[in-house]
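Hi team,

Filling in the usual template for the complex we talked about on Friday. All components are listed, including any nucleic acid strands or ligand strings, so the model treats them as one assembly.

SUBMITTER: L.P.
PURPOSE: interface mapping
COMPONENTS: two
RESIDUES: 578
SEQUENCES:
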Amino acid sequence: MDERSALAALAETVGGAGDDAAVIDGLVLTTDMLHERTDFPAGVSRYTAGWRSIGASLSDVAAMGGAATAAVAAYGAPEFVPEELDAFVDGATDVCEAVDARYVGGDLDHHDEFTVAGAVVGRVDDPVYRHGAAPGDGVYVTGTLGRTAAAIREFEAENADRGNTLFRFEPRVAAGRALAPVATAMMDSSDGLARSLHQLAAASDCGFEVSWDRFPVDSSVDAVADGEADRRELAAFFGEDFELVFTAPDEEVAAVRASLPVQVTRIGRAIEDGVVADGEPLPDRGYSH
Amino acid sequence: MDERSALAALAETVGGAGDDAAVIDGLVLTTDMLHERTDFPAGVSRYTAGWRSIGASLSDVAAMGGAATAAVAAYGAPEFVPEELDAFVDGATDVCEAVDARYVGGDLDHHDEFTVAGAVVGRVDDPVYRHGAAPGDGVYVTGTLGRTAAAIREFEAENADRGNTLFRFEPRVAAGRALAPVATAMMDSSDGLARSLHQLAAASDCGFEVSWDRFPVDSSVDAVADGEADRRELAAFFGEDFELVFTAPDEEVAAVRASLPVQVTRIGRAIEDGVVADGEPLPDRGYSH
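RESULT (copied from the run log):
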C-alpha cells in the first residue's frame, strides 16, 4: 500500500485525518515525521532541520486557518552532539518565533537514522477544510512555488548555504488566519501544487481551470531549471513547498488582500469538474513521502 | 553526550523541557518517539504498539495533572500493511478512549525501522511540576511496578499474548487530575521508580526515605523474577512503567483517596536530602532510552 492509499484508509477510520491537521474542541493538532534519507539531503544543517521539521507542522496549522500556540519535537539520532542539538533547537525556536508560537521542548531518542517528528498545537475558531470550494471561486496560492525543488538542486551542486536558505520557509500562519474568513477551501502545497489542486477538487467535488503562466514560480527555480519543461516540473509537481493553496470568491480576496502579509496570486478558477491547465489535463502526481 | 545530559542541555535552552510535558497558555503538549530496536521487542503487536506509543504521551499529560484532549501519531514503517495500520490505529484509539481523549490521525512516512512518534495535547489549569516536594510530605506511587519488565521477560520467553497484555497500560490521567489539587510534586515512572525519586529530589531540592517492602510490585514480576535481587531490579530500576510518582501531605491524600480510580501506595516520605531505601542509598540508575 502506498502512502496515499494508506492515508485514505486512515481517513476512513479516523475523523479529520483527511485534512492537513485535526481539529477538536477548538484546538488544532498535527504532527510530521522527517528523516535523513528522504527529507534531509547532504548539506542540510541541523538549524535548518529544526526549522523545517517544526515548520512543516506549523504549515498544517496555517492551512486550517488556525493560530499556532506551541511546538514540540521528538529528536532521534545515533548520537547527541551538543552543537547539533543546540542548532536544532535554535532552528525550531526561530521558526516558532516567526509565527508567534513557542518551541517548548520534546523527547530525545537514540535512533540509527536521524529522524525528527514535530508536533504543533494551535487554536482555531472557524477552521477551513479542503472541502468547500465551489465553481466560480477563484483559486489562489501564497508566496512562490519551487523553492524546495531549487534547494535540492543546490544541495546536489554542493551549494549548501544557498540550499539551506531555500530550504527554510516562513509558515503561512498569519496569512492563513487572515484568509480564514474568506477562503472556502484551503490546504498547504506540501504534495506539490498539481496534487494539491486534485486533492482540493476531490474533497470539494469540483474542478479547476488554471494557467501555467500565472503560477508564481520562485526566481530560484529559474536559476537551476534546465528548460521550460523542467521549470514546470520543479514548480508544480516536485512539492515540499509549504505555501497555501485556497479558493475564495474573488471580491472577498480583494477585500482582504491589503491585510495579507504575503503575496497572493490568482492562478485560475474553480469549475464543475476536471483539473486543467491551459485546456490540458493537469496530471495528478506529486511528492510521495 | 548521553540522553540525560542532552535533555539537561535542552532544558537549559527551552522552558518546560525539564518536566514530563510542556505547559503553555493553559495547554499541555508532549511527544514521545518509540521505535522497533529499543521499544518494540519481537512479539509486540501493532495494536499494542499503537496503544503504548500514544499511552506514553498520555502519561506525560497525567503527570502534569492535565486532562487529555487529543492525540496524533507519526507512523514510520518500511511498508504500509493495511492490517498493521488498522491495528495500530485501533490501539491508539482505544488508549485514548480509556482516558476520555480522542485519537485524531497523524502522518505516515516510509522509514527503514518501524518508528512512531506520538503527540498529545491536553488542558491544565493548575499544573503539578517535579519541583514542590517538601520534607514531611508522603511519597506515593499509583498502581503497581514492574509490568513492563515482566512483559519483556514474557516476550523473551515467546509468551506474546501475556507480553502484549502487560505491555499495555492505562495512563493515569484520571488519577493525575484527582491528585493535582493535593500533590506537591509529580512525574511518571517511565525512567523507573528509583530514578524518578532522584529526579523529584533534584527538582524539589529535598530527599526521600522509602521502604522496599512497601513498593507495590506487580504480581507479574513474581512470575518471572529470579530471586529477590532480580525482583527488586525489575520493580524499581527497569523502568518504562507509566505510573505516577508523587508527593503530598498525607492527610490530603487521605481526603481524596476514595475518589481515586486506582490504588495509591505510600512508599515513604520526603526528607531533607539523600534518597535512601531502608537506610541504604538507593542508586540513581534506571532506564536510558
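MY TAKE: Chain B touches chain A through 60 residues (CB under 8 Å). Chain B has a mean pLDDT of 94.

Thanks, L.
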